[in-house]
Design goal:
The protein is an alpha/beta fold. Helix content is 48%, strand content 16%. A five-stranded parallel beta sheet has the order 3-9-2-10-11, sandwiched between helices. Strands 1-4-5-6 form a four-stranded antiparallel beta sheet, covered by helices on one side. Bound molecules: adenosine-5'-diphosphate and deoxycytidine diphosphate. Keywords: ATP-binding, Kinase, Nucleotide-binding, Transferase.
């Protein structure tokens, strides 16, 4: 479990500075919305035994705080209040290693990867679903455009990375020499390789065509909505009161429009805009399978750690 301690770091800046860059190997994955960053980052972290931090979820938590404290509608007048709230609230990111046995069995048979799920806690409350609502989607790029919010979130991102749960593992190297995979962290977002960890050992810029990204997000949202409907049907069969809100399916066009607006805001904002770091490896995954992109990034990281590539035959 990762725990942010923004207040603690603010009070002890020297200690914070020392802790902020102590990971042995950092992988930064940036790119536009729905390019596959977070699923890829989680799978790569699982492959290497690294910690994982979803930096966008912290901006989403900040947006949820604005909505819950009724300052979202005229946010431009309330930045100091929001920054204060961010500093006072604890964010935790919990990785759930894959416990779904039937999924793992299918994966083992088909060679498909099962990605660990992630739980986001805000002062101990699980807000994993609440930070992915349409209201948060609409407001998050605006919240992430404020310089003060970005500094507050940067502190949290770095303290989560410094405290990520990871340790060195020994692996069989070339010949008889055992090698060690150092402890490390994978963080995904928009400015991880340019601002959060400009000295990251490996920087990836993931991209895909606008249509591929919209279709993937649409698929993802529809399968979540279908799960919801199945749960509702089961509740009805048990004769439990139906308190559910009717399910609405977004169209691919609506999702494409939302992604385009968010990308525009992320690329054109003044503070820490989405950019390709000069030393980033650019991967366009429009025509790659998920497994191809995960294994190629894992092998790039292994090479940079002085280890043999592992997945060339896949
Ligand atoms: N190469 C790929 N081919 C097909 N689907 C992919 C690929 N990479 C990721 N996805 C899927 O695309 C969706 C969006 O990925 P996600 O990791 O949430 O993106 P991001 O974090 O960039 O918003 C997920 O459902 C993910 O499983
Ligand atoms: N390092 C980061 C991460 C996210 N953001 C902002 C920009 C994004 O529109 C929002 C939400 O990010 P998130 O990664 O959750 O978004 P997607 O999963 O790609 O849709 O946060 C950022 O400005 N810097």
């Amino acid at each position: 479990m990762l725990r942010s301690a923004a207040r603690f770091w603010r009070q002890t800046p020297q200690l914070y500075k020392r802790q902020a860059f102590t990971r042995d190997f950092t992988i930064a994955i940036d790119g536009p919305a729905a390019s596959g960053k977070s699923s890829t980052a989680r799978a790569v972290a699982q492959e290497l035994g690294f910690g994982y931090i979803d930096s966008g979820s912290i901006y989403r938590c900040a947006t949820l705080l604005a909505l819950r404290n009724n300052i979202a509608s005229d946010i431009d007048k309330h930045w100091p209040e929001l920054i204060d709230l961010i500093g006072k609230t604890g964010v935790e990111i919990k990785i759930q290693p894959n416990s779904n046995r039937s999924l793992s069995v299918v994966a083992a048979k088909t060679g498909r990867l099962v990605v660990p799920s992630v739980q986001i806690l805000l002062d101990g409350e699980d807000v994993s679903n609440d930070i992915r609502t349409p209201e948060v989607n609409r407001l998050v790029a605006k919240v992430a455009s404020d310089g003060g919010v970005r500094s507050a979130v940067l502190n949290i991102q770095r303290s989560l990375a410094a405290n990520a749960d990871t340790k060195a593992t020994e692996t069989q190297g070339n010949g008889k020499d055992p090698h060690v995979i150092p402890g490390g962290v994978v963080m995904d977002g928009r400015d991880v390789g340019t601002t959060v960890f400009p000295n990251a050992e490996l920087k990836i810029y993931l991209d895909a065509s606008a249509m591929a990204r919209a279709i993937r997000r649409w698929d993802e949202m529809n399968s979540q909505l279908k799960n919801k409907q199945t749960e509702e049907a089961a509740r009805k069969q048990e004769n439990k009161a139906d308190t559910s809100v009717p399910v609405e399916y977004p169209s691919v066009e609506d999702i494409a429009r939302e992604l385009e607006q968010r990308d525009y805001a992320d690329i054109n904002r003044q503070h820490s805009p989405l950019r390709i770091a000069p030393d980033a490896v650019v991967i366009d995954n429009t025509n790659l399978t998920f497994e191809q992109q995960v294994y190629s990034i894992t092998d790039l990281a292994r090479e940079r750690m002085g280890l043999q590539r592992k997945y060339d035959d896949i």
